[in-house]
Amino acid sequence: MIDQVRQWVVDARRIAVLTGAGMSAESGVPTFRDAQTGLWARFDPQQLATEEAFRANPALVWDWYAMRRAMIAEVAPNVGHVALAAFAQRHPGRLTLITQNVDGLHQRAGSPGVLALHGNIMEDRWLDVPRTCCGTQAPLPGRPPKCGVCGNLRRPAVVWFCEMLPEQAFEEAERAARECELMLVVGTSGVVYPAAGLARMARGRVAILNPEPTELDDAADAVLSGTAATLLPQLLENWP
Ligand code: NAD
Ligand code: APR
């Protein structure tokens, strides 16, 4: 089956790739829903990954993201991230990378134009105003930092539960899905929408790369049972 999918990669002029937390598992970043090691097995997402939770206890949520940032700063992109970046650099404009991940590892591996549907944990923004707050002075240090004039808080620049996705990124992701000849769906359980829905609107063939069954397997033309760091180099490297 992998040879079949590799041939689809060779033949496809436009490829969309949708990645999830499993893409970074071999870099040492925990996934969300793994029963033993997943983040949501140890923390209650409703207590941490919502605006309501942040407003109720800003220091707790800020500290949790600071802990994740520190962990992510210590890890490196794996060979799966590198294979995607190298392919995109060798074939400019042919591959559109859409990720649900907030760890920035695709960007650090050198992938261009990453559509980060859920934001980037390494960045933060104002809670109550979208861009600038009361001027140019830096926020006062704190957990979280805050505006010295109006007290507005900084928050992680990630998409929380019940929040809208970044409109332009999502529109570009939908367009890539609708125009591709092939979509590779890598390391996602496919349980969270609207990201997972992109795999159901793909114009072309859909190949899933995952060591476990997913909620999207029924929409796939091929399911490759394996990890991102094993399968992506096999599919994308050693090209003429
Ligand atoms: P959800 O089921 O509430 O829907 C996701 C959001 O996308 C909702 O605001 C919904 O209105 C919007 N949406 C739904 N369909 C859409 C479409 N077709 N076009 C544009 N927007 C659409 O999802 P959720 O489980 O509450 O989570 C919200 C988002 O935040 C999800 O994408 C989730 O993955 C993300 N999230 C990120 C983290 C993180 O740490 N990065 C944690 C939790 C959730
Ligand atoms: N290679 C490929 N896939 C892997 C690997 C690996 N090495 N290790 C685990 N996986 C798979 C698991 O089998 C699972 O299907 O990665 C998937 C991880 O699923 P989730 O933990 O649900 O993560 P994800 O699908 O990215 O979650 C979607 O939900 O909480 C929100 O915003 C959060 O972006 C996240 C979204």
From TrEMBL:
Ranges annotated as spanning the membrane: none
Keywords, sorted A to Z: Cytoplasm, NAD, Transferase
Active-site positions on this chain: H118
Biological classification of the source: Bacteria, Pseudomonadati, Pseudomonadota, Betaproteobacteria, Burkholderiales
Gene source species: Ramlibacter tataouinensis
The encoding gene: cobB
The protein's name in its UniProt record: NAD-dependent protein deacylase
Residues holding substrate: Y65, R68
Localization per Swiss-Prot or TrEMBL: Cytoplasm
GO function terms (MF aspect): histone deacetylase activity, NAD-dependent; NAD+ binding; protein-malonyllysine demalonylase activity; protein-succinyllysine desuccinylase activity
